[in-house]
Specification:
34% of the residues lie in helices and 12% in strands. Helix 4 packs across helix 5 and helix 8 packs across helix 10. 30% of the residues are buried.
């Protein structure tokens, strides 16, 4: 059973003294004195106030699309202009795909991003979709959004999914992200073996260029983008899957951002692939998207943790609330 400070017959002076004794730590003050619980871990990778704001600003889908008569793609408001439909096939959506095995546990997740305003447009997740059905789903999505650019992680079943699309659906394979050849990063260990032909060598190198491999460098870049967007661009974080994953992330002793025990990171990874593609992807102009020089978003005007401390007296005294209001708010 919990009782607030008024029920415990404490006054505002006591409240002020508690804040002073906590050296102005507003997070500790909110949770331990005002009994306002935050969803995120104080020791997690993101500021709990930012995560709290993101959770409060979570939006509902504006609709959905049934793909292959089975799989529901949730659509979110993301268009700057009304085009008479929920998705605009003219937009080169950046689509991140985090594949899984399809036997429960982790989900195969995909997130679509509008590259012109960086708003998430849609998301999908399933822990039981098989590899052939993932291929069929992605092919349907590419044909529905023919200008999209798809970033598929090569880990797990990702390489096989890419290979299946390239082999059986060459028209769709043209929309898969492909990095530039770099001999320092892409090589075949058995290149000099008598058991490999030159064609097989070229095919193996070509295969390695497709998708996004989450090595140490790209993983760090994705993590940095997560931290930056949670801190500075909370207005574009609002879909159910991404918000849920963000609230459940933790940081290891080595600084790696991972899902907490029992939680998942499927949607935040898929979202991270789209952000990585926008900020670090190569030759996107060849696929129909020219990234603007300036970032399309304005940073949050004032991160929550930097806002001035609340006037304690305003918790009870209506007149004291004026001290916490701007002149414009007072006029309203």
């Amino acid at each position: 059973i919990e009782y607030d400070y008024l029920q415990c017959r404490r006054n505002d002076e006591w409240l002020q003294s508690m804040l002073v004794s906590m050296q102005g730590n507003m997070l500790k003050f909110r949770t331990e004195v005002l009994l306002q619980r935050l969803a995120a871990d104080e020791n997690g990778p993101f500021d709990p106030y930012d995560v709290d704001t993101i959770i409060q600003n979570k939006k509902l889908p504006i609709g959905d699309v049934l793909l292959n008569e089975t799989y529901r793609l949730d659509i979110y408001e993301h268009l700057d202009l009304d085009v008479g439909r929920m998705l605009d096939p003219m937009i080169p959506y950046l689509i991140g795909v985090d594949p899984a095995t399809g036997v429960g546990g982790d989900s195969t997740a995909l997130v679509g991003l509008n590259p012109y305003n960086l708003k998430p447009a849609f998301e999908f997740g399933s822990a039981f979709i098989s590899e052939p059905k993932v291929i069929a789903l992605l092919v349907t999505l590419i044909r529905m959004l023919p200008n999209c650019i798809m970033f598929i992680e090569t880990r797990s079943s990702g390489s096989a999914i890419i290979a299946g699309i390239r082999e059986h659906y060459p028209d769709c394979a043209a929309r898969l992200y492909k990095s530039e050849y770099d001999p320092k990063k892409v090589y075949i260990k058995e290149a000099n073996s008598p058991n490999i032909t030159e064609k097989e060598k070229r095919d193996a190198i070509e295969k390695k260029l497709y998708g996004i491999a989450t090595g140490e460098e790209s993983r760090n870049q994705i993590q940095n983008l997560w931290v930056e967007y949670v801190k500075e661009y909370k207005s574009v974080i609002y879909t159910n899957g991404i918000v849920t994953d963000i609230s459940m992330m933790t940081k290891t002793s080595t600084g790696k951002i991972v899902a907490s025990s029992g939680a998942h990171d499927d949607f935040i990874m898929a979202w991270g692939f789209t952000l990585w593609g926008y900020h670090h992807g190569q030759n996107l102009d060849r696929l129909g998207f020219v990234k603007p020089i300036a970032h399309p978003l304005e940073k949050d005007p004032m991160p929550i943790r930097e806002k001035p401390a609340l006037n304690i007296q305003a918790l009870r005294n209506p007149e004291a609330r004026l001290a916490n209001m701007s002149s414009l708010e007072v006029l309203k």
